[in-house]
Amino acid sequence: MSRCPGPSQVQHLMMTLSCLLHRKAPQVFLQKFFPRELHILSMLRHPNIIHTYEVFENMQEKVYIVMELAPHDLLDFIKKRQHLSDEVAKRIFKQMCLALNYCHDLNIAHRDLKCENVLLDKDFNVKLCDFGFSRQCDTDAVGNIKYSKTFCGSKEYAAPEVTQGIPYDPKMSDAWSMGVVLFIMVCGFMPYNGSKPKTMLRLQKDHRVNFPKTFAIPKGSKDLILKLLHPCAVRRPTIEDILRHWWVSNDLTSRKPDEGSSTSASAPKTDGQDDAETADGQDQSQK
């Protein structure tokens, strides 16, 4: 892992310090997830992934992680604007895809993608963070990824195969979570209500996605959301497929968002139950 810059360089860098106290952390985290996270962080060097400068431990069994500073997170960024314009959502989503594609090329799955784990720097560039549940995927003799069995992340962002406890392809579960994040960016609320897990799972397995009626969701982002939130993992696009999708590849997203700007549309309802739609475009709201 790279070392922290010397004193003469520190004034030119914006850094943050995280502290972990050994005796208060769960043993499974200390023995399994934390060492894995540190190993993976040491491998990652990408402009859209938070940079770790140094990790060190003191005599009081405290572990300190010196990281790049990113002052915003995506969830707060969305809340201040109710929902994001198509242009801003595309800019952020594409940077997320570039970061995740880099990870997947290294056979690393994040497994905890959510708005809170997408930080934004002072120029509102994406800095993907929190690799606590990430893992380097094992492959079989012919190169196929071995499935994961561990439930990871937040249930509202988790793919249906993950919440059901079915062995899953971690890269395809990442793709589902990307669909949830994109939905939240353009709609302003969660696509599924995690407090009602049975209803949530039924809607997911029926491929029902509830878009707002109070304002229109652009065709490109809606098409990609429906593809990513497919209940059958093998039918979801890979991150490479997403980057080739016409909505993402039509790169008109050079303008960075303004810190205080908001969308002009009205805020959507928070229950997310306005307009149920499936991949073929059929209205399902009466089912």
UniProtKB/TrEMBL annotation:
<protein>
    <recommendedName>
        <fullName>non-specific serine/threonine protein kinase</fullName>
        <ecNumber>2.7.11.1</ecNumber>
    </recommendedName>
</protein>
<dbReference type="InterPro" id="IPR008271">
    <property type="entry name" value="Ser/Thr_kinase_AS"/>
</dbReference>
<keyword id="KW-0067">ATP-binding</keyword>
<keyword id="KW-0418">Kinase</keyword>
<dbReference type="GO" id="GO:0005524">
    <property type="term" value="F:ATP binding"/>
</dbReference>
<dbReference type="InterPro" id="IPR000719">
    <property type="entry name" value="Prot_kinase_dom"/>
</dbReference>
<keyword id="KW-0597">Phosphoprotein</keyword>
<keyword id="KW-0723">Serine/threonine-protein kinase</keyword>
<keyword id="KW-0744">Spermatogenesis</keyword>
<keyword id="KW-0808">Transferase</keyword>
<dbReference type="GO" id="GO:0005737">
    <property type="term" value="C:cytoplasm"/>
</dbReference>
<dbReference type="Pfam" id="PF00069">
    <property type="entry name" value="Pkinase"/>
</dbReference>
<keyword id="KW-0479">Metal-binding</keyword>
<dbReference type="GO" id="GO:0000226">
    <property type="term" value="P:microtubule cytoskeleton organization"/>
</dbReference>
<keyword id="KW-0221">Differentiation</keyword>
<dbReference type="GO" id="GO:0035556">
    <property type="term" value="P:intracellular signal transduction"/>
</dbReference>
<dbReference type="GO" id="GO:0050321">
    <property type="term" value="F:tau-protein kinase activity"/>
</dbReference>
<feature type="region of interest" description="Disordered">
    <location>
        <begin position="252"/>
        <end position="287"/>
    </location>
</feature>
<dbReference type="GO" id="GO:0000287">
    <property type="term" value="F:magnesium ion binding"/>
</dbReference>
<keyword id="KW-0832">Ubl conjugation</keyword>
<dbReference type="InterPro" id="IPR011009">
    <property type="entry name" value="Kinase-like_dom_sf"/>
</dbReference>
<keyword id="KW-0547">Nucleotide-binding</keyword>
<dbReference type="GO" id="GO:0030154">
    <property type="term" value="P:cell differentiation"/>
</dbReference>
<keyword id="KW-0460">Magnesium</keyword>
<feature type="domain" description="Protein kinase">
    <location>
        <begin position="1"/>
        <end position="248"/>
    </location>
</feature>
<comment type="similarity">
    <text>Belongs to the protein kinase superfamily. CAMK Ser/Thr protein kinase family.</text>
</comment>
<keyword id="KW-0217">Developmental protein</keyword>
<dbReference type="GO" id="GO:0007283">
    <property type="term" value="P:spermatogenesis"/>
</dbReference>
